[in-house]
Amino acid sequence: MGRQEKIKKARRIACLSLLAKTSVFSVACNLPKGPIIWDVIPIEPNLDLIKEKLHQALAEYDAVALEGLAGTFRIGNETFRHRYVWRKLGLEGCSERVSDGAMLQETLERFLVKQAAEQLSAEIKDKRILFFCGLNRYGSADVLSRYSKHMLFGDMLYGFRLGIPILSFPAFVNTAKRLVRTVGRTPAHWFWPTARRSPPIMPRFRYYIRNADVIVGGITYFQRYMPDSLAGKTVFCNVHNDAEIELFAERGARYLVSLTPVVDGVFVPLAVLEAGLKLDASNRSTSDIENFYLGEIHRLALKPHIIDLQPEGSEDLALVELPQHAPEPLEPIKEVQLSPSKEVSKFCFVIHPLSFEYVARLQVMRALSHFVPARFLEDALAQVKPWPIGLVRGVVSATGAKAEGILYVIPMTSKAIMRFPPEFLYRRLLQVAEAAAGNGCQLMGLGAYTSVAGDAGLTVSQRSPIGVTSGNSYTVAATLLTLERAATRCGIDISRAHLLIIGATGSIGAICARMAAKRVGELSLVSPRPEKLLELRRIIEQDNPGMKTAINMSRYAGDFVGKADGIITTTSSVEPVVDIAALKPGCLVLDVARPPDIKADVAAQRDDVLVIESGEVKLPEGAEVTYNIGLPKGVIYACLAETLLLALDGRFGHFTLGREIEPAKVNLIAEIGQKHGFELANIHSFGAVVPDERFSRLAQINRERFGLANVPAAGTADV
Questions:
Q1: Residue 7 has pLDDT above 80, yes or no
Q2: Is domain 475-616+683-704 given the CATH code 3.40.50.720 in the classification?
Q3: Which of 19, 187, 476, 610 is the residue whose CA sits 20 to 30 A from 698?
């Protein structure tokens, strides 16, 4: 009854949108005074048709929001009407029930931009800032003018499509009032891209976009006018969904600041939020309404939604497996010779130096590093073609299948891989694939950052003469099995345990959440992106109809860290995300983040909790890797193990590719691992094998909680 009652009491808003591309759909959220439901109704850029729909909506809804068409402007303390729009739409007499978001732009948007600018000050201070249109973002321009004097306004460039830039904020202030009066007297399509029926002819005035470090504008301006690359730029935009966010990620933008507030985990257009708040502020004067808005914004606890689109270590990089010990120098092997027998399957696997520390092991680099900057040497070495560095040989599985492979090194550090365009790495990987094919290899595995950079193997697979896999499916399988095995040894009944996943919307976090959902008693998901959390929960419930596991969501790990029995942390935050002091006794933490979320000295503060790493895999008896990859003898990474298993099983097509890892692939490679007798290696904590005494300590704590009488002390498990 509660939900039905809320729906009945919800205020209904019609959102007439020039931005929406699909059919009518409904969205809801809760405001401090009660819930609102808005129907997004796509409209064509025809003011006569808009007027007809507007007045129909006024008869059916409590309020109307106009999205993509501004009827008013706020310039300083003055409000200006777009006279042409007001006259054509017949807004006189109904303006109290019609909102275009202009008033909230002067309050909420200023607040969001200010908070974002403080957090991204290094990216904004004294940088070149381009406003596609300053007239409808005067407040934002005023805020950002405190951070940089290098501002350019494109109202004449992208609005009236004249080649006249406004070159500073003072110049814009002097021009704005005359410009807004001109705009108000002209047809809407003369100035607003959303009101134009013509397709985009783009990019327009690309020099100004290319020259800017920061770009501020509505999504329509970006869709019409942005070039193929926004590499390294910071963008302020009113995004509405993941597809629009992905658009900026694909173009290489570094930071995206959403100017669309997120309420209850959904994007709420400013015009809709203003319409909802206006319903709660009836019979108030204009100044009272603005103060009311400020109070409601505070109550909603709205914050800027900042997305790091190209982090040096993204959530996806949690899949990267790092050496426990320093590998050998990157010296090429003298001879690459694989067995001529057709019964021995052949593969190759790609590694690379993680940091300049490994590069400096080369004698020539060590000598040059005394007087040449490390970054210059990294970039110079990246120009060198890949070379073979070791062999994997003598592999015979439990079925009698045989395989051997070549390790190739691409001489690019992790920073260089993230710094260079993805296409540069793709060319290096294709060089490996062609060389390996010439040596009889039929499959290529991608190691470390080569498996997650760019599009995680998709482009390379389309051009490669041999099969390609990132190895990430087996990495996930080994991670989940390590969690279950360690939980058992710690006295935790995983079927009744509360599992917390931090970084739940990244590649590894999402697949772990999907696959663990039915195995645990309670599942808590944490991510800074609430819209992603909602989507992940929907997928989990679709995967598991009738599932009884309780699911919780939050943007803050602190809501759950003190309640969880087990934690998987997969973020790449430079700040601590797990308060070790808040963990309850007996808690097990599986830290697969890169770089690690929990440092060794921090974990050492608690002997009643255990922090472990993701699982490595044992090589079959008699097999060897001739190059030290940074693990104990006879142990390999799960991504290398996936490549090896696929070769043993005769599967030479493409396997794990892209950032979306499917449960079916994880289950399949786990079955293949069992078929060939592969086992997990010993569980490690900060590079050292966890002793039995440590497991016994946690088992003693958890035994009473979960009522487990006997806890295994040691053993291995198949994967």
A1: no
A2: yes
A3: 476
